[in-house]
Specification:
The protein is an alpha+beta fold. It has two helices and five strands; from the N terminus they run H-E-E-H-E-E-E. The model is unreliable at 1-18 (pLDDT under 50).
Length: 108
């Protein structure tokens, strides 16, 4: 009985870890919940635009399962930080906007 419970607990943990696309271990998220420009999700460790896109998709899939990305808008601040807004749509047609920021050196 005790071993069965341990196996069940391990299976639940593995299932929780598998939520959303994989992100390389050097990619880190900090900042806010992405709900506004004041609460942007900060993506750290991405070395190119492809890595940024994978990280964004993974974060959105983790935070809002089932959303499909529709489009994004990029703005570069004077400090060379890149601010990106991603609009997504849910199966029921509702849209969601998520705000990200990452270092400007990513695009060089």
């Amino acid at each position: 009985m005790r071993i069965s419970l341990l196996v069940l607990f391990a299976a639940v943990l593995v299932g929780c870890r598998e939520r959303g696309p994989k992100v390389p271990s050097h990619i880190r998220f900090s900042g806010g919940d992405g709900s506004s420009s004041e609460r942007e999700v900060v993506i750290m460790g991405a070395t190119n635009l492809d890595a940024v896109r994978r990280a964004q998709r993974a974060w959105v899939a983790w935070r809002y399962p089932g959303l499909l990305t529709q489009y994004s808008v990029i703005a570069i601040s004077p400090g060379l930080e890149i601010h990106e807004t991603i609009d997504s749509i849910a199966a029921d047609g509702l849209t969601n906007r998520v705000y990200f920021v990452y270092p400007g050196g990513v695009l060089r």
